[in-house]
Design a protein that fits this description.
Pnp Oxidase, Chain A, 8 strands, alpha+beta
Length: 214
């Protein structure tokens, strides 16, 4: 993706943390005629390969898994919080509107998991990962005949990451006063996405020198 140096993030620990937090991602492939996308939950095995490995599954009826057969590289797009930024918030003029956001792109060549035992393990890991924060996690304990029928209806795959790109576009190219004003304006809007972008800006030291109201 387009990557001005001010917005670039290369720290693999930061990128992995982001991918875990925003793990419902978009898998993008190319068939003969056009791009194809599916929206899927992913689990990251951080220590499998130099950049980690992603595992996921999709409905067998989803034709996208057939795109894996040609060995082409695919893209998994992890989208974080994002918010519109109005030029009316800036002190420095003239200025134009923009959008603040964070995203991570993971590239690799997916492989279908044909072994039913491996596929069961994938589903077990997926369930345990997403049930863990719940006060009473649901157990992956299903009747064998029901589970077998479910397994026949899905395709699991793994993608060893060969390249990672991280972009945090958070007003780093603006003067400090403008950064502060953007954080304050986003906080004042009160919606979840704006608040999350403001938090992320402060977490990364953008517009963080804001005097608390007395």
């Amino acid at each position: 993706m387009y990557m001005p140096q001010a917005f670039r993030e290369d720290d693999i620990h930061v990128l992995h943390a982001f991918m875990r937090q925003y793990s419902f991602a978009t898998l993008i492939t190319q068939d003969e005629n056009a791009p194809f996308a599916s929206h899927l939950p992913f689990v990251l095995a951080a220590n499998d390969g130099p950049y980690g490995t992603l595992v996921a599954h999709m409905a067998r009826a989803n034709a996208q898994w057939h795109h894996f057969a040609d060995g082409r590289q695919v893209l998994v797009l992890f989208q974080g919080p994002h918010a519109y930024v109005s030029p009316s918030w800036y002190e420095v003029h003239p200025s134009v509107p923009t959008w603040n956001y964070a995203a991570v792109h993971a590239y690799g060549t997916p492989q279908v998991l044909h072994d039913s035992t491996v596929l069961r393990g994938l589903l077990q890991t997926l369930v345990e990962t997403y049930e863990a924060p719940r006060p009473r996690p649901w157990r992956f304990d299903l009747p064998e005949d029901y589970l077998d029928s479910m397994l026949r209806g899905i395709v699991g795959f793994r993608l060893r990451i060969t390249r990672l790109e991280g972009k945090y576009k958070l007003s780093q190219n603006r003067p400090e006063t403008d950064q502060q004003r953007v954080v304050q304006a986003l906080q004042a809007q009160g919606d979840a996405l704006s608040s999350e972008v403001a938090r992320l800006m402060q977490q990364r030291g953008v517009g963080s020198h804001i005097t608390a109201p007395q």
